[in-house]
Amino acid sequence: MAFLVTAVCSFLLYLLLTTSSGPLFLWSREELIFGAIFAVIIGALVKDMFIKKSFRMLDPRRWFLFLYYFVVVFLPAMAKANVDVVYRVITGRINPGIVKISPKLDNDLSLTLLANSITLTPGTLSVEVDEKTNDLYVHWINVKKQALETMPRDHKDVCGKFPDWARRIAG
After folding, report:
1. Do 140 and 124 form a contact (C-beta atoms < 8 A)?
2. What confidence category does residue 50 fall into, taking pLDDT thresholds of 50, 70 and 90?
């Protein structure tokens, strides 16, 4: 089952990346054959890395939940962070530093989703994960002085509701 899921996902990603390379934005027969061969090879090589013990992300409801998160939660937060970074650069009110947050996520997939969301948001960058406690070290553009004194800190100041959504989607 893991091989099949990995091969199908690889093939779909290949199709997504090579779209419009053929006539009328479709794929040629050679491209489809090459993509299928490529997907089978990738499926055989990385099936154990891509699909571990759980098939929870194969549930289409989680995919729609992720799509909702991306459009309704993440993109507005990213736009707001862009404006904040522009303001800080223009005014010079930058106080960078590394803070430790405890999102209390219990699996690698949700922690990866959170770390990627933080990194894609301007003004923040995921630096390190403490594998024992699942705490996350984040480089933040606007560290308040009291934030450094209370570590690990609440994640709301740094990444808002991202951990709650990561728990809902991948937990």
Report:
1. yes
2. low
